[in-house]
Amino acid sequence: MSAIPPGSGPRPLPGTRRTGRAPLVGVACAALAVALTGCGEKEDPDAGTNGMGKLPAAKIEAKARAAADRAETVHLSGNVVGQGRTYKLDMSLAKDGAKGELTTKAAAFQLLRIGDALYLKADADFWTGEKSGKSGALDQGAANKLGGKYVKVPAKDPVYQRFSGFTDKDTLLAGLLGLHGKLTAGDRGDLDGVRTIRVSAGAGSGVDVSLEGTPYPLRLHRAGDAGVVKMDQWGKPVDLKAPDKDQVVDYGTQISGSGR
User: Fold this and answer.
1) Range of the domain at 148
2) What's the total number of domains in the chain?
3) What strands, in cross-sheet order, belong to the sheet with 194-200?
4) Could you tell me where the beta strands, DSSP code E, fall in 96-210?
5) Distance from the CA of 97 to the CA of which of 18, 155, 169, 208 falls in 20 to 30 A?
6) Is 83 inside a domain boundary?
7) Does the pLDDT value for residue 17 go beyond 70?
8) Distance between CA 249 and CA 260 in Å, rounded?
9) Is residue 255 assigned to a domain?
């Protein structure tokens, strides 16, 4: 048998080299396949949330309102348009009272309610503009006595009727959170680092509900550009303390137009 001359064995096909890289190519292809498979999977937008995003809009709204009702306290801030006026709110509300500030185009004043006792603190110009039936506006002397003091507002006075609702948590939230029309949900957002889902109704109204922890309503958009209100500090204590006696003016049964 003749010997095979050195170098006369099978030769690689033209354009190829025996480099031992085939295993590396196989690994790279496998990694690419895994990556492509991962790209085809959609991330779950509700991962790590309280599950509100998986519910119908009506159930999200119901759970948000129930959470608001159960909470002992809340802080509201923003703008509300009502009765032809725009009110800027900064109110901390509890079950048994509230404190904070309201601002209109004409005036700014503080409200404090403890139980049934409502106090209003404003400057003299605010009180000068208050009217009550035939009595007309307060005279300047009476208004000066009230300016800068906590005025204990009689329950039957028009001032009490007009502003006490801003200090009642249940009444105020019921009016703000009432959405009218067909409800839809789905728009996701972020408010101060908290993920939210919006429940929308007619004419642009809607409420952003927390997707983390308790499903509290966190921001309200009122229909017809009638204001945006932020809701936070749910369940945090509100320190309600009556003002010092020397800072209180008690006008008995009537303030507006009393002439006193």
Assistant:
1) 52-238
2) 1
3) 184-191, 194-200, 206-210, 217-221, 228-232, 73-82, 85-94, 97-103, 108-114, 117-121, 150-153, 248-250
4) 97-103, 108-114, 117-121, 150-153, 184-191, 194-200, 206-210
5) 208
6) yes
7) no
8) 12
9) no
